[in-house]
Model the fold of this input.
Amino acid sequence: MFKELSGVERVLSGYTGGTVPNPTYEQVCGGRTGHAEAVQITFDPKVISYKEILDVFFSIHNPTTLNQQGADIGTQYRSAIFYHSNGQKAIAEQAIQELENGKIWGNPIVTAVVPFEKFYPSEDYHQDYYAHNSAQPYCRLVIDPKLSKFRSRFSEKTRK
Done:
C-alpha cells in the first residue's frame, strides 16, 4: 500500500527491533530473534509527510492487539514504529494520542514507539510479496480488503 502513495520512493520489507544479526524469515517467524516484521519506507517529505504515512499505517492494521495481526500471533507481529529522529518520535506519539483522544479504536493502542537501530531486508521472495502472489488465499482474504479500504480512503494521496 505504501508503494502506491505519491512521494514514497522505496518500500523494503524486512525485520527490525531484534537481537539476532541477519535473521532469516524462518527465524523471525519462529519468534526466536526479537525482530518485528516491518517495512522501511523512503519518502520525499516535500510530497508526503511523516504524519501522512503514519495515518496510513494506523488505518491498515489493528494497533490495539498486542503481538498479533489477524491470525498471525507472536512478537514478530507487534505493532511498532521505529523512529529515526526525536521529531519522528514526537509526531508518532502525537498521532497515537490523537487516535486515543478520538476514541477511533475500541481498545487502547499498544503500538510501541521505539528508536530505530538496524534493519535487515527480508529475502527476495518476500519483497513485493502481494504483487507476485495476489492470487494466494492469504492475499485474497486478508490483503485485498485492506487494499480496497486503503485505495478508497487515500485515493487523493496515491499515484495517478
Notes: The radius of gyration is 15 Å.
